[in-house]
Design goal:
With 144 residues, the chain is an alpha+beta fold. It has helices at 2-16, 33-49, and strands at 23-26, 54-58, 61-66, 69-74, 80-87, 93-99, 108-110, 117-120, 127-132, 136-142. It has a 6-stranded mixed sheet with strand order 1-2-3-10-5-8, covered by helices on one side. The chain has a 4-stranded antiparallel sheet with strand order 4-9-6-7, with no helix packed on it. The chain starts with a helix and ends with a strand.
């Protein structure tokens, strides 16, 4: 419920208080596994609360729920750690294509029990592109 409140308030303020481009929540990924999964599940609810992107950061990890479509991530800020991953949460992703990763995907299915893209890294191009047909969790290490 804590993460849900953190999303609801900025979404409300963006309508009445001015420009907000992204919601960043600090915390929500440490500790108990059930609480981590509750934070991930809240990212699905966030799409019904706000059109703003919601990013969750805890210590050295960042998660972001990519919606279906094409995404371009700039990974050349110097704050990126060494690993990243794409995890199909909620539904299998029938078609995922990436560029900019050491191990890219081309129209691959991501599904628990088949393939989950974890422990990947970057190809040093500075940009990662991801195209997905279903919501897909992007995770990466960060340097803070």
């Amino acid at each position: 419920m804590f993460l849900y409140k953190n999303i609801f308030l900025p979404a409300y303020c963006s309508r009445s208080c001015g420009q907000i481009d992204v919601i960043v929540t600090l915390g929500g990924l440490g500790g108990r596994f059930d609480q981590i999964m509750a934070s991930v599940e809240t990212l699905f609810h966030a799409t019904k609360i706000t059109p703003l992107p919601v990013i969750v950061i805890e210590e050295c990890s960042l998660i972001y729920l990519l919606q279906p479509g094409k995404h371009k991530l700039h990974v050349d800020t110097g704050l990126e750690g060494s690993w990243c991953g794409l995890i199909p949460i909620g539904n299998p992703c029938e078609s995922v294509t990436t560029t900019g990763l050491k191990w890219n995907l081309t129209n691959q299915m991501l599904k628990f029990g088949t393939l989950v893209s974890t422990s990947n890294t970057y190809d040093n191009s500075g940009i990662v592109t991801i195209e997905t047909d279903k919501p897909l969790l992007w995770t990466m290490s960060i340097k803070i």
